[in-house]
């Protein structure tokens, strides 16, 4: 539940949040999961995040669609969305 957390999965490595009224910046590096032709997960997704220039997530392996304290298993896909929560 903190800024730059991966929702319900990984807290941030550091608190890089700027004071209220100051602009917050995120750089998100996402490697999509890779699937075999039969739908098996060959490689899970991975995410690295900089918050205001500070490393807060370091190549975290995403278990699937993240929800609070759980995740949904991967289903084969070629795209999707990354959501940021305010």
What does this structure look like?
This protein has strands spanning 26-31, 34-35, 41-43, 46-51, 54-61, 65-67, 70-72. The protein has 86 residues and is mainly β. A hairpin with a 2-residue loop joins β4 and β5. It is elongated and about 50 Å long.
Question: Can I get a quick summary?
Answer:
By secondary structure, this protein is an all-beta fold. The protein has strands spanning 26-31, 34-35, 41-43, 46-51, 54-61, 65-67, 70-72. The chain has a three-stranded antiparallel sheet with strand order 1-4-5, with no helix packed on it.
Explain the layout of strands and helices:
Blueprint: E1 26-31, E2 34-35, E3 41-43, E4 46-51, E5 54-61, E6 65-67, E7 70-72
Antiparallel strand pairs: 1-4, 2-3, 4-5, 6-7
């Amino acid at each position: 539940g903190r800024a730059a957390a991966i929702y319900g999965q990984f807290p941030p490595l550091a608190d890089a949040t700027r004071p209220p009224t100051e602009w917050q910046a995120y750089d998100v590096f996402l490697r999509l999961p890779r699937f075999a032709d039969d739908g098996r997960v060959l490689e899970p997704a991975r995410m690295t995040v900089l918050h205001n220039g500070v490393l807060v997530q370091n190549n975290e392996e995403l278990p699937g669609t993240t929800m609070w304290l759980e995740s949904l298993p991967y289903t084969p896909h070629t795209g999707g969305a990354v959501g940021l929560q305010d």
